[in-house]
Specification:
By secondary structure, the protein is mainly alpha-helical. The chain is about 60% helix and about 10% strand.
Length: about 120
């Protein structure tokens, strides 16, 4: 069944619609997961690069969230046999498919900021 047919079915049933929203929220919930995913849209990153790209995240929280995202199939972790050991994180195909979601969120956020604060970023 195609994704558009699935979406149409979910939109016809409140239970299916809410279940799909809950499934999404279980994967991307929390303060830091979406910023991590957003940083990884720009390509593979090492841990310290992610730390620099995401202001105010602690190393402990970044590590925890990366493990959660990896467990949910959103991020892959690749360890290279080098000295010192190099670890890179990147989005899986499923993680990359969140582009549509984040683009809509960014668009809404820019519009909302302009309406509330009176200026765009």
């Amino acid at each position: 069944m195609s994704p558009s047919i699935e979406l149409n079915k979910a939109k016809q049933c409140a239970g299916s619609y809410v279940l799909a929203i809950n499934d999404t929220m279980n994967v991307v919930s929390g303060k830091w997961k979406l910023p991590i995913i957003g940083a990884l849209f720009f390509g593979k990153k090492r841990f310290k690069e992610l730390e620099r790209n995401i202001p105010k995240i602690t190393p402990r929280m970044l590590s925890k969230e990366l493990r959660d995202l990896e467990m949910n199939g959103i991020v892959t972790r690749t360890v290279y046999d080098s000295v010192p050991v190099t670890v890179e994180y990147e989005l899986t195909r499923s993680g990359q498919s969140l582009t549509k979601v984040l683009d809509v969120m960014v668009e809404w956020g820019l519009e909302h900021r302009e309406n509330i604060v009176g200026k765009a970023v």
